[in-house]
Amino acid sequence: MKKLLLSFIVLVIISSNIFPQANKNFTAAFDSLHKKLSVNYAFTDWKNINWANLYSEFRPRVAAAEAQNDSAAFFLAIKEYLYRIHDGHVNIYIDGNDNSGWGKVGKRLRDQQIGGSYGFTLIKLDDGRFVVRLVTDSSAADLAGIKFGADVLEVNDMPVSTALDSVPVIWAETNPTTKEAKQLYQCRLIGRAPVGATIKIKFKNRGDINPSTQTLTAVYDNYATYDLTTMSYKKDSSLFSEILQPSGYGYLQLTICDPSLIFNFITAFEDLLNNNVKGIVFDLRINRGGSDAFAAAISGFFYTDTTFYEYWSFYDPVSGTFQITKDTLDLINLQNFTFYKNPKYPIGSIYIEPPIKTFKGPVVVMDSPRQVSSGEGIAMALKRLPQCKVISFYGSHGSFGIEDQFELFSDKDSVSIMWAKGRSLDSNKVIQVDSDSSWTGGVTPDIRPPLNDQIIDQMYLQGVDVELEYAIQQLDQMTGVKTSANRTPVTYFLSQNYPNPFNPSTTISYQLPAAGKVTLKVFDILGREITTLVNEDKTAGNYKVNFNGSRLGSGVYFYQLRSGSYIETKKLVLLK
């Protein structure tokens, strides 16, 4: 999370059901919170938040909770209210966690709503199917014969996509902000319900001709499916580096943007440079953010010129609009590892300052929805570089605002309402990275590895880090080294043809992790087959094939690789 180094406020209310309550101030607490957010929240227009409608919907629920002295009803109303604001910086933080009075209220509500499990989770594949990603042993799904990789066709007599759309996400670890992240949460939570609830599943296991239908009953599983597919962040401040073998590329993993790690990062970075690495994989897939000054400083190790990073903008009560802050923002001095301010930059801005030693070679960044705030900022900055590509199945979280907390009452049993007070703006003073009203945002991948049956087998059954494998393959293409040429591939991969555009011939490379029937065909822009380049059984390995377009006219064509259920298509351009 981005941290605003200003005074913070904490919403505290007392629950009569858990601990003594002298006053019933639920409505006053809600009114104060709503007033603060409806005026000062950073993305009201950007996300099209209708505060009047939210107030009309939730104020009566809060009033009823106060009238009945029902702390659980109040807590649930506040949680649902906040989850209507699709921002990862908006949520409830309980001081003391599950051991506090409000912690116990939240835990009891969560147990009531999703404490039961059917024993499965889903994942959406590129072809639009929803298949079983996880089945826990001896669960209701397991006992009903549902297997890993099974196609789920219907849920409670509805198409599975329709059923997923209705799955609430208020018990997700963070508030999802993009469409794809919300669906990831729904694919996890569709398999959870109150203990004793039932669900009707129509599914077809791999190899079955006809689908089966079973009714499952949710039982307590100590949150096994929830924890095994967690979307939360690592708790420790972690930096890890190594030389990947046999490729020899450098690997950096950063899970938090903590200024105290700057010396360790410099040490790890210089160690990679001293080993003459030809490319670097920067793993930001699990990064919970932190300091923007740190994120800008880290980005500088891959830049050659001083470059704009962001403006900070906050609500100005005088003008009634959001204005760039008049403060000179902190940067990190990489010589003595202290914060400093550079008056030569515009007020309210942060700049990327390259250190003496930088890396000018190719970089592949891996991101994910578990990468939030300042962690997204590093990927944002590196993606702007011509020598950098972002590779992942999904984009980053899409929550890049400046976070704050809200204090209403002061008490030892506190509940903090996290919210976004400030905006990050690009050089044109437009909001960057935060998701918009269409639930679109984050740092999106330049290259998305395919998600198909073979890939999920490799990830969840064989333990292969598919995204890392694709990152290495991308570095092979960018460096021309081809470090993977002499080893058996662990994933399917179809490379972009080279050269492209071409005239009259070009080379297409592909790899197979297993033996099987392979076809490689070329199609025109209307989908008509032009030629078949490969149509035979192949062993696992790396292959190249030449395509000659001397008899074709200039234009856009497509080539498609098929092997088993793996299908991938890419575009090529013939330019005469």
- What oligomerization state is this entry in? single chain
Under CATH, the topology of the domain at 453-574 can be stated as Immunoglobulin-like
Alpha carbon gap, first and last residue: 51 Å
Strand content: 25-35%
Mean pLDDT: 90
CATH class membership of the domain at 453-574:
Mainly Beta
Gross geometry = globular
Give helix % range.
10-25%
Give me the Rg, rounded.
Answer: 26 Å
At the fourth level of CATH, the homologous superfamily of the domain at 453-574 is Macroglobulin (MG2) domain
* Level-2 CATH architecture of the domain at 453-574: Sandwich
Secondary-structure-derived class: alpha+beta
The parts where pLDDT drops under 50 for at least 5 residues are 4-23
Number of distinct beta strands: 29
Described by strand count, sense and barrel closure, the largest sheet is: 6 strands, antiparallel
SS summary, helix count = 13
